[in-house]
Write a structure and sequence with these properties.
The protein is mainly α. The protein contains 16 helices and no strands. The protein has two domains: 131 residues, no CATH class; 274 residues, no CATH class.
């Protein structure tokens, strides 16, 4: 039997309005059990608002005069209720906003695909249920960090389209547009890991700190965990966190390569996955030793979306591109390998990015080797950091594993490929 579309839309509108009414009632009983007078109706009121919105819209679906009149009338009625609440020192308009959403279900079901109405319904239920979670999350947020995020979005959305997408300087192989686009993408990947580490997985254990922190910055994570070893003493659990951070670096480089150069990403994929899994296996083994350790780890590092950090990264990216172009043109593959090892002892992201996006007088095979050498060299640096910040012998277990991963990666690039 074929049901009329209007009937289907009406049933959906009434059903969603009724269910949200039930959710509002649950919300009231959970968060305001003794203040029922703070609520402008619940289940029946919400259901009638859904019906009213549907009917008034169908009366005049073109000019919407009747529908808007009903909205104005309801707003005026709620205003009288709200003025009374203000006298009691209460200023929440949550119920009014929820009711507006219900009032819009009628036009929504008629004008848009039904999945949009369903999504709107789910979001209302989710937000009502997530009151405590949202309050806890917002209480931990550093406002300056999200202000910085806003600046970066503004710069990306406004300045990026204005940059020329053609080479401006002959010896820089990329246009300003592509250079800044690369900076935005790398910053976004780092920022995602940073937010996850700081707000979602905070104080979730050393292994989780290593895994998530490695997606943001394996070097910074190594330093933080090594300092914990120095304070709390040698521990296989903290060692596991340090090793897992280095393991996740391999996955992070695979993702970065896939974004900018899929061919190179495919070449490094099997090798980097093997080294990453080897590190994770060792980490899980150390986790199973279950030696006592002091609890808690505070991950404190600079926001990767700070404007100064982004501009510095852009400058290093361009410099590495020019330097790599000069080295490959004058010293070939030997010079590139030496440069890869040296830059691995610093921040490797600008150098890796320059290899993935530039055009040089070396083969793709040699570029893949250079990426591996830089990753391995960076592991050697992290092993040294683990020893230095971890108090020498206390961190020797983690440093040894990270060092072996680094030497193994370099050896693979030099002798196996």
């Amino acid at each position: 039997m074929h049901l009329d579309a209007i009937l289907v839309h009406f049933v959906i509108t009434v059903t969603f309005a009724f269910l949200i009414g039930l959710e509002v009632k649950t919300y009231r009983e959970q968060y305001h059990p003794k203040n029922h007078r703070d609520f402008f109706g619940t289940t029946r009121t919400m259901t009638f608002m859904g019906i009213l919105g549907f009917v008034l819209y169908k009366i005049d679906p073109v000019h919407l005069v009747v529908y808007v009149t009903g909205l104005v009338g309801f707003t005026a009625l709620y205003l009288l209720f709200y003025l009374e609440k203000l006298k009691e020192g209460k200023n929440s308009i949550l119920l009014y906003l929820v009711t507006l959403v219900i009032y819009s279900f009628g036009p929504f079901t008629e004008r848009y695909p039904l999945w949009m109405t369903a999504l709107l319904f789910v979001m209302v239920v989710f937000v009502l249920n997530a009151k405590r979670a949202i309050q806890n999350f917002t209480a931990q947020i550093n406002a300056e960090e999200f202000e910085t995020l806003g600046k970066m979005i503004l710069l990306s959305g406004v300045i990026l389209p204005l940059l020329p997408d053609e080479k401006v300087i002959s010896y820089i192989p990329l246009s300003p547009f592509k250079i800044w686009l690369a900076v935005v993408i790398i910053s976004a990947i780092s920022y995602g890991g940073y937010l996850a580490q700081k707000y979602i997985f905070k104080h979730r254990g050393y292994f989780v700190t290593g895994v998530v922190g490695g997606l943001y910055s394996s070097t910074a994570t190594t330093v933080v965990l090594a300092r914990k070893i120095k304070d709390a003493g040698a521990s296989p659990i903290i060692d596991a966190g340090i090793i897992s951070a280095t393991s996740m670096m391999y996955f992070r480089l695979i993702v970065v390569a896939a974004v900018f150069n899929m061919t190179i990403a495919k070449d490094i994929l099997p090798v980097f996955v093997c080294f990453a899994l080897a590190g994770l296996i060792v980490s899980l083994y150390l986790m199973g030793l279950k030696e006592p350790v002091a609890k808690g780890v505070d991950f404190v590092d600079e926001n990767p979306l700070e404007l100064g950090t982004a501009l510095l990264f852009a400058g290093l990216f361009v410099f590495m591109m020019m330097l790599t172009s000069y080295i490959t043109a004058h010293y070939g593959n030997t010079g590139l390998r030496l440069l890869s090892f040296v830059t691995g002892l610093t921040d490797i992201d600008p150098f890796i990015l320059s290899l993935l996006t530039g055009k040089y007088s070396v083969t793709e095979h040699e570029i893949v080797s250079a990426v591996m050498i830089a990753a391995g060299s960076n592991n050697i640096l992290k092993a040294a950091y683990a020893l230095w910040f971890g108090g020498g012998k206390r961190a020797v277990r983690a440093a040894a594993v990270v060092f072996v991963l680094g030497v193994g990666t370099i050896a693979w690039a030099l002798f196996v490929r």
